[in-house]
Design goal:
Its main location: cytoplasm. The chain is mainly α and 300 residues long. The protein has 13 helices and three strands. The longest helix is centred in the N-terminal third of the chain and has 21 residues. The radius of gyration is 23 Å and the shape is elongated.
Length: 300
């Protein structure tokens, strides 16, 4: 017998240690499961089951495919969530029931496996022109904030996500190459100069293991990075589509227009499906290893 919180805690550990998912993804999965547990308890005829103290394993063993369809309907028509949210919750459930089978808590076919997803149309990526990027850099250099300059450089030159930047440790940088668990980047002069200037002028005051740290010496949060970009946008009087994501999309276009192989870009960006890159560049993509050399990228 396992209570809800015990089950969620053990699953979160599995996602972190075995699946090696990000904290953001794990939180989303757990949030979705809490919603499902509440739905399942309310749907159950067993009065003794409650979220905090009930035996969730016995209840989960009884879940059928029709229960999953009922949950998907509830998310879309009762909670009035978008199709993409419904699909995400189905993905969370499928992963969770895979886990239950993995640890032998259930011994039947995954009830989510045959459930169809809602068809969605992905929005076209937003990009920035060079004039807009130059305005951002002009404003950030005027502020003379070396940390912010380094962060903006890493997004615009390396196509790094805000979540990836927050995870960079000082030990990942050796003066010319940035090595993270998922990628290796030979930095160009602009990147090296920005990082070195930040380390020598601002970062030396901290004792954090992370390259970019918070006031408490923890890693900088994704929200803080997004706030930096938002402030730059407002101060530069630019449009709302200037975000860390649109800056990264612009960097991806630079990679595509360079002489770097598409399959290397696909692997470097961490895309699991070729369609993820094809939204930027219509071409078949394979799944080969990557070592990204920024000196190969065309200068605008």
């Amino acid at each position: 017998m396992q209570k809800s919180e015990e089950l969620l805690d053990s699953y979160a550990t599995h996602l972190k240690e075995i699946m090696q998912l990000s904290e953001k993804t794990i939180k989303a999965y757990i949030y979705d499961l809490r919603k499902f547990f509440v739905f399942l308890i309310n749907r159950s005829d067993v009065d003794s089951v409650d979220f905090d103290s009930g035996d969730m394993t016995s209840l989960l063993k009884k879940v059928q495919t029709q229960d999953i369809y009922a949950f998907a309907y509830h998310v879309k028509h009762v909670e009035n969530k978008r199709d993409v949210t419904s699909n995400r919750r189905l993905t969370s459930l499928r992963s969770f029931f895979d886990y239950l089978g993995y640890v032998n808590l259930i011994d039947k076919k995954n009830p989510v496996e045959s459930v169809e997803r809602y068809k969605t149309v992905s929005a076209a990526p937003n990009y920035l022109n060079e004039e807009t990027l130059n305005k951002l850099f002009d404003k950030i250099r005027y502020r003379n904030k070396y940390r912010d300059i380094a962060i903006l450089i890493l997004i615009s030159n390396c196509a790094l996500k805000a979540s990836e930047i927050s995870e960079i440790k000082i030990s990942d940088y050796n003066g010319s190459i940035l090595i993270t668990p998922k990628k290796t980047i030979k930095l160009n002069d602009d990147c090296k100069r920005a990082i070195d200037d930040y380390i020598n002028t601002e970062r030396y005051k901290t004792g954090s293991e992370y390259l970019f740290s918070s006031q408490k010496n923890d890693k900088i949060s994704v929200r803080t990075i997004q706030h930096i970009i938002k402030n730059l946008r407002v101060d530069s009087e630019l449009k709302d589509n200037v975000t860390s994501k649109s800056i990264r999309n612009t960097s991806i276009l630079r990679l595509i227009e360079s002489n770097i192989k598409p399959e290397e870009i696909h692997k470097y960006l961490g895309y699991k499906k070729s369609l993820s890159l094809e939204k930027h560049f219509k071409r078949d993509i394979s799944d080969d290893p990557v070592y990204l050399d920024l000196d190969k990228i065309k200068k605008k």
